[in-house]
Amino acid sequence: MSQDAAVPxxxxxxxxxxxxxxxxxxxxxxxxxAGRFSMFGxxxxxxxxxxxxxxxxxxxxxxxxxxxxxxxxxxxxxxxELRAIAYDIATAQSAQAGEMYGWLVHWGVPxxxxxxxxxxxxxxxxxxxxxxxxxxxxDEELREAMGMASPAELTALREATGTEQDxxxxxxxxxxxxxxxxxxxxxxxxxxxxxVTQVASGMAEAQQREIEGLQAVHDRLACG
Length: 224
What we know:
Layout: H1 3-6, H2 9-38, H3 50-76, H4 80-107, H5 139-145, H6 151-159, H7 162-190, H8 194-220
Helix pairs in contact: 2-4, 3-4, 3-7, 4-8, 6-7, 7-8
C-alpha cells in the first residue's frame, strides 16, 4: 500500500491548505523580517514626536488586517489579477510593518500604547478620533473610522466564494486603503521624523495605485 493510500481522504484533502498556510506565513514572516532589519541606519536624525510613534503603532495594526485579508484572497481567488494584487499587498505591508516595529525599538518606546487609536491625529485636518459632541469613540468605532473591516466582514470574506468573494475583497480593501491614506496625511502634517514621512508618503502612493487597480477589477467583475 502506498503512503498516500494509507492517509485518509480527509487528511489528503487538507494538505494543500496546510501547505498554503506554511507558505504564506513564511512569505509574510520573511517580508516582516526584511522590513525589520532594513531600518537600521535609515531612521531620520530628528527626535520622533507623538505623531510619529502613534502612526507606527496604529499603522502596524492597520497593516496586519490588510495582510490577513490579502492572504485570504490570495488563497481563494481564481482571478490572476486579484491574486497578484493580494500578493503585493501581503508582502509590501508585512515589510512595512517590520520597519515600523523597528522604529519603535530604535526609539526605545513600547510597541503598545494606552492611548486610543488615532489619538495622535488630534489637531490635524484628518482627525477622526472624536465626534463633534466630544465623546470618545469606542475601539470598534475607531477601527471603522480607520477603514478597517469588522469581525463580521472578515467572516463574510472567509466564507464567500468566487465572484462574491472577489467583489467583497475589492470593496473592503479599497475602504481599508482609503483609511490608511488618511493616516498618512495626518503624519505628514504632524510628524517630525523624516524617515517616517518618507515611508508614509511611499505607502500612500502605492496604496492609491492599488485602489485604482482594485476599482478596475471591481468594475470588470460588475460588482454591485
